[in-house]
Predict the 3D structure of the following.
Amino acid sequence: MKDLTKGNEFNIIFRFAVPMLIGNLFQQIYSIIDSIIVGQVIGKDALAAVGASFPISYTLIAFVIGIGSGGTIIISQYFGAKNILKVRQMIDTMLIFMFLSAIVVTAVGLIFSRDIFILLQLPPELIDSAVTYLNIFFIGSITMFGFNATISILRGLGDSITPLYFLMLAAFLNIVLDLTFVLVFHWGIAGVAWATVLAQGIAFIANVLYLNKSNKVFKITLQIPTFNRNLFLKSVKIGLPTGFQQTFVALGMVAIMGIVNGFGTDVIAAYTAAGRIDTIASMPAMSLATALSMFVGQNAGANRFDRIRRGLISTIIMSGIVSITVSIAAWAFGAQLIGMFTSEPEVIRIGTQYLVIVSSFYILFSTMFSITGVMRGAGATLIPMFITLFSLWIIRIPIAYFLSDIFGSKGIWWAIPVAWLFGMIGTSIYYKTGKWRSAVVVTNKDRIEI
């Protein structure tokens, strides 16, 4: 646990973000390794099936993860206010919500997975593989939700180091199990899915055992946890807009996937491979923004808005430098990066085209995410939700649909930076109004002087 309300803002955010970035990169290794093994060993059809599965799985879990983020913000604000009792109550409440939600998500996913792929007009030859992969993923929902919940809680407490160790463990296990299940047991796409599920499950159990022995605030035991209705409603008020935002973003990804599906297996495979690289490339900006949210949460709880402004400026500078560096790397090595996933020349060509177009505008994405990080940390999630939905559903999806008719798949890629531009403008305007400050949950009577 770390107090983020004291010390140099630049150094605090940087030091908090670096372990989180490394952890997120290891977490993304799951999908990278999956995709490389699937594309190189099983083939481009399997790679396309895995890619088509991601928007579906993300849609079903996004709402729950979004609401859970409200709990993380409340934990960081009460921790900044030094109110440990409220912190413990929020942790219990968040874990109960995640457990029950995982059961619902698993049931819905297993029942409707095939119908969803048919509705999205996924090529018939890909449906069986995609359903197999997705169903196994949903079987592991409980441990996945638990794993992500424990990591989020620790970050709310100012600890970005401990999650790193267990994300590294999960990544290592995933690689070993991937190679074993696919190359030794020849389980195909099912082996890739089981590797991810088991890796997260083992890492979650190890995380719980470690925390129960070493952490004074965060413990998970067989004793029935306490559900605090008042804190839950506060977390829902903060998290519900984020939940809706995440869900509609996920649905937007499904809509984009529907457009991509119309161009056939090569474009689907290229979009999958390039999307994996794109996710890695955007990770520094996202990690810095998440670190800023935790920083803002604690400092808002301590009523230190002067530190929040300086923290935002520091984060924009850091993420801007990283974004420009990553853009140059994507331009220079795009073809080689896509070539890690497949040896198909047409897939490499299309994937490289995606990276060149999208990576040129990472600076827009990083600035937008940094500003949104301030609002999320303060608990002001409603207006950012509307801005995100406008950028996606009014800008990106219609433009992708329109331009793809004229320029082919290239038109889909150009719609991404256009949406980022509108998102950055909208979040900047809202930040300047200062209205986001009124969303902070902690009041003066909640603050405990030490």
Notes: The chain has 14 helices and no strands. The chain has a mean pLDDT of 85. The chain has one domain: 9-440. Residues 9-440 form one domain.
